[in-house]
Amino acid sequence: MESSVDRIGDPWGGRVPYGRHDRWPVRVDTFLADGVEPSMVQQWVQAASILHSDGDAMDIAVVDGRMAGVRGRAVDRVNRGRLGPKDLFGWQANASPDRLTRPLVREGGRLVECDWETAMGRVVARSRELLTERGPGSLGFYTSGQLFLEEYYTLAVLARAGVGTNHLDGNTRLCTSTAAEALKETFGCDGQPGSYDDIDHADVIALFGHNLAETQPVQWMRILDRLEGAEPPRLLCVDPRPTQVARKAAVHLAPRVGTNVALLNALLHEIIRNGHVDHAYVQAHTVGYEELAARVAECTPAWAAGICDVPAARIGEAAELLGGAGRLLSTVLQGVYQSHQATAAAVQVNNLHLIRGMLGRPGAGVLQMNGQPTAQNTRECGANGDLPGFRNWQNDAHVADLARVWNVEPSTIPHYAPPTHAMQMFRYAEQGSIRMLWVSGTNPAVSLPELGRVRSILAQERLFTVVQDLFLTETAQLADVVLPAATWGEKTGTFTNADRTVHLSDKAVEPPGEARTDLDIFLDYARRMDFRDKDGGPLITWDDPESAFEAWKRCSAGRPCDYTGLTHARLREAGGIQWPVNEQAPDGTERLYTDGISWAHPDVCENYGKDLETGAADGVVEYRSLNPDGRAMIKSAGYRPPHEMPTEDHPFQLTTGRTLYHFHTRTKTGRAPQLNDAAPDVWVEICGSDATARGLAEGDLVEVRSPRGALRGRLRVTTLRQGLLFVPFHYGYWDTPAGSGPDATTPGRAANETTITDWDPASKQPLFKTAAAALTLIERGDGGQAPAPTTTASAPQDTTGVRATTGGPGARVSQTPAGTWDASGGDR
């Protein structure tokens, strides 16, 4: 029996309740294009979602060589057949008529079509010229969170051992670098301790700055199903907005933006004061508890209440919920990572689990979540601020081991300083030391902070910019060479989600025109540059996704992210498997740290730690003296006020974030009709009392201005905390007359026109949630609504007479309950 559900108006679909410690039941979601019946599907091709970090497994429907729909994979551990709105509808962007199909080069100030020989010839000629004249530090690579593992690894090898540059990072710097840094600071190594399966067992689930309902909607479905089953969990939500999570929470704390450390220190204070510490676990597995206890001794709820503007009694209730939990699962995302004292706050969540002994057991874990779909691979493969395989750039033995894998001299691999983070790369480009910047699969002209500055950097005459993408994005419009790339469903590769589950995504259809896979583009560049190993052979010896994966396995062998037990064939057969997968764990590893802390010893750890308040790096001597036995590190931090606070001229705090229906800068989701109709344009959220005080109403056109720039949008009046404005960051200019940025005919639309160039001292993640802003009325609305969803955290304060957002025709999805699906994943 199938049901038909409007998955725009009802994004999470119907419930399949289940009890604590039971297995999450199957519910298969399917969406086919208009006019396509299931019997017409000629092939179902295995894949997983590329539009968030959840890793939802799906099959792509193929009819006459084109994509015709998707369905969830019932047998997969991550989603058990469920798909979120972006999964169900986002695939339609692949067939957009404005896909790039031929390379472009800049001639006389204009981008014109050319052949691959011409485009790559220019890239290689400029690369060689710069290497000769200025050295490897003049080239930088800024990549994505949406490529495949095989592509990141190839890029890391050619950049670090081929070009020899230290300037390689991903846009994961914007979303997940704090997750990586927090895990390294606490456990000595990246890698999520917990598992999505912990949702099935936890009695308390705490979400810190994590709007799970919109960022990982399928796992929110899982929580909703548990809430309707036996022994439902109690939820703690820390978020200044009235998210769906907040509405279901037993305790909701809405702190002032930038005060997370103060709040967490008060929670730790109360947990310690009330005797909820597992001292046996602390003594056996950690160092640093005494310093933490001393640091938070004076951090009472009353003290935090004055800083966070949250009632002290509510902080006490939250602490009792956390302290009384039998099995606690915590998740963390951008409300922490993109805010002030990001790493310090994320580490305090880790501390909470360490002092309570809540690790390594079903239902007891922490997930420092990811934002980008393949962010975990960027980190594993060294395409961000680390060396491949979670190796330590300060450890000569690690560098020598990587040199052995690549068959190069250790001196070939830059390790004279930390790998350059993205914000510093753009600063170097602004100053002129980076003269070539290769951007693959991301759109910094919309996603980076202070966009006026970013556009001026990318538009420099002296900067040679290469952009590799699907569409003529705002960034591509400023490039010197544009390379048309194939995307998900048009190529084969693996990627890993936020709980270490590795999926294979197979090629279902051909890419349009002359578009090439990112792997093929990188391999072509390496061949043309003639990169060699120390014996004179080719540096890169693989030539397709499967051989690239086998090469990566050799690099990962013996490292925390060990893939040696995996193959493309096995993933194709078995579905998602959690790393490490090796002889000791042939079927994967559900949870890390089940028998103590594994990778914090000074000889094997990924880094030696940093001061959480200043970012100052420790060396091996300091690390070894503090943690000679390789235990988990309990690291404390004091609260410091944000660098930019409201003023008389800019009286609001401004925070940015996501909406359920869009991903990143809308280059894909903005081209999917149902998703675009659900949230077609930017809006500005304000609380009711602030709106009333300023004589503003729903639908008014307003301008948000910071010391850096301005944007305009229609007003949505919600119940978010007083003194705060929220703007979704997805909206740029590709679908406006201006095309690449604001001009006389197109006012500011992108949230990042206003955000500040500032980053966390430890993780170097930009702070998108700490700006001060002013609000001005531009024109009265006509009584209509803002173009914002009504189903999410953006729901209006008064829903009387407000039409629920729907996607119109074609947004309905078939949902098949458990018991009617072939366990092999085949047709019913």
From TrEMBL:
It comes from the Bacteria. The keyword Transport does not apply. Keywords: 4Fe-4S, Iron, Iron-sulfur, Metal-binding, Molybdenum, Nitrate assimilation, Oxidoreductase. Its cofactor is [4Fe-4S] cluster; Mo-bis(molybdopterin guanine dinucleotide). PROSITE patterns: 4FE4S_MOW_BIS_MGD, MOLYBDOPTERIN_PROK_2. Residues 42-98 form the 4Fe-4S Mo/W bis-MGD-type domain. InterPro entries: Asp_de-COase-like_dom_sf, CT_Nitrate-R-NapA-like, MoPterin_dinucl-bd_dom, Mopterin_OxRdtase, Mopterin_OxRdtase_4Fe-4S_dom, Mopterin_OxRdtase_prok_CS, Prok_molybdopt-oxidoreductase. Residues 781-828 are annotated as: Disordered. Residues 785-801 have a biased composition (Low complexity). PANTHER family: NADH-QUINONE OXIDOREDUCTASE SUBUNIT G, RESPIRATORY NITRATE REDUCTASE. Belongs to the prokaryotic molybdopterin-containing oxidoreductase family. NasA/NapA/NarB subfamily. This is Molybdopterin-dependent oxidoreductase. It comes from Streptomyces rutgersensis.
